[in-house]
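Regression report. Comparing outputs from two consecutive submissions.

Submission 1:
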Amino acid sequence: MSEEKLADFLKNGKDWSRVRTSVPGVFVLKLPAYRGSPTRLAAPCGLYCGACIDYLFYKKCHGCSCNRGECDASAHHKNCDVYKCCVEQKGLETCGECNELPCSKLIQFCYSPIWLSHLPVIENLRRQKAVGVKRWTKEQEEAWSNEWYLQRWIGLQKECENKLKQSFADSKHAPQKKK
């Protein structure tokens, strides 16, 4: 990428843009202002990050589109095979851009008995393709604006989190934090 193209991209490119360079595996990213873009809550896999406990309750994550390294999204990226495939290997913003949608990896992610909250991802990606990520994000904001429903959702996520911690403690196979 020439310096002129890079300067133009950084000045005029859309938020959360990712452009390949002539160096294999190196991309140029243009990030929006912190929490400035509603589409940042559209995860590459099709989840809506605005309904995540790390975002809603703990306030430790800015959404899976965050690449700043200062939030929990970094840990999610390291452990997520879907993110690795979509963003790191294929250079896509979402799985909806992939010709293989839905691939086996995404189907396994969607129907995992451990993560029932992943069930809508394939339909979410199809909806994003149909109406665009910006409109889909607004639809999600509206759907999750019901305070009664949202409080029960957070309660359910906390309950699942506690059961998972207890399960790890009982089995003595708790994951070790890296130092």
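Submission 2:
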Amino acid sequence: MHVLQERAPPHSARRVLTVPEAEAIIGGSLSYPSKMPCPAWGISARQCRRGSRLAEKPGTVCSRCYAHRGHYLNASVATAHRRRLEALLHPLWSDAMALLVDAFARGGHFRWFDSGDLQGPQHLEQILWVARRTPTVSHWLPTHETGIVRPRLDDIPSNLTIRISADAIGKATERSLGLPTSTVHRNPGEPVRAASSKRSTSIECLAYLRGHRCGSCRACWSPKVKNVSYLLNAGLRSASREAMRVHLAVLP
């Protein structure tokens, strides 16, 4: 059962918040995943609506989700995720998030859901509002929740890239809604390409060649990159010498 079946209005600012007050409202500070060049926000992958069902099906990307292992299983992380989920009901959540994103990512980038996914239409409305309030920040939101996104396609601000995630490993998504997509491939140097993507607009994530870090690459945040393909469980693997030989010349 998800917390967000009933909630307060997405934003109702009464006064200017301080950073400590904003962090208290959203359930804690923003996260800083080691791979990312920027702050992020996420909740438990066990709270994913479609993803929790996909996780039970072999061959899906969710069945191999990195957020079901490693440090995501630590009690402290689970507690932080629970606080964040519960905090979504706070009437000043959107105001607090906008303040924190502006304070820590102004002029840069922000990632939604390093773990977890959209909890419902109202959750998306909150995020859309935060993106509009932080126009100097480039936002990236990966999601499987096409049913939540579809009614709001015309309301997505230009600084928010919603990237539709493919369900199956090794296959492109068939429900992109005309939005950028992401896929997952099994072998280094053999990315899955979206059916509608030209080679120049569909790329392989090469973070596995950079110590599992984005480095200077910001492809995931760019709506011009129609598909990004990630190596399956790249964080648990080392790049082969052959893959490094092939790709080192094209590192961003």
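Expected: both submissions complete independently.
Actual: both completed, but the second showed a warning that disappeared on reload.
Relevant detail on submission 2: Residues 1-9, 236-252 have pLDDT under 50 and may be disordered.
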